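Researcher: Re-running this chain for the archive, since the previous output was lost when a drive failed. Same request as before.
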Amino acid sequence: SSSPTRKPAARPATKPATKDDDDAPAPADAKLDWMWPTQGKSAPSADSYKKGIDIAGSDGQSVVAAAAGKVTYAGHGIRGYGNMVIIKHTPQLLSVYAHNKSITVKEGQMVTRGQQIATMGNSDTNKVKLYFEIRRNGKPVNVMALLPAR
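Model: Regenerated structure tokens:
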């Protein structure tokens, strides 16, 4: 018979995570159009066990969503983070914005990339800064690999 042969179903291109590629952004992470959440000088967070960055700035300056998503947390119930916003971007990816002076979004709200979500402050820390983190499946990833160079 001359019926076309069926191709076997393509296998997903995911491989088991190893210690080495934990920091590397997954292809899906890079597909999101990430932007800097605020202006200011960035430095690795002082707490080495955290993978986020601290962005220094001035009291009250705007903090924006680094990518579009849904606000899953907006409050100050987690000690050490002050007024914090968490935005879920995909089932695997979320971003964290901590130490804000005020929060301008509510839980459950959809936000667009660049939309203001908070104002910078020093809640639960000793200087005015934004602590910013991107997590994939609950684990922090290297945000510098995802944010555009500036």
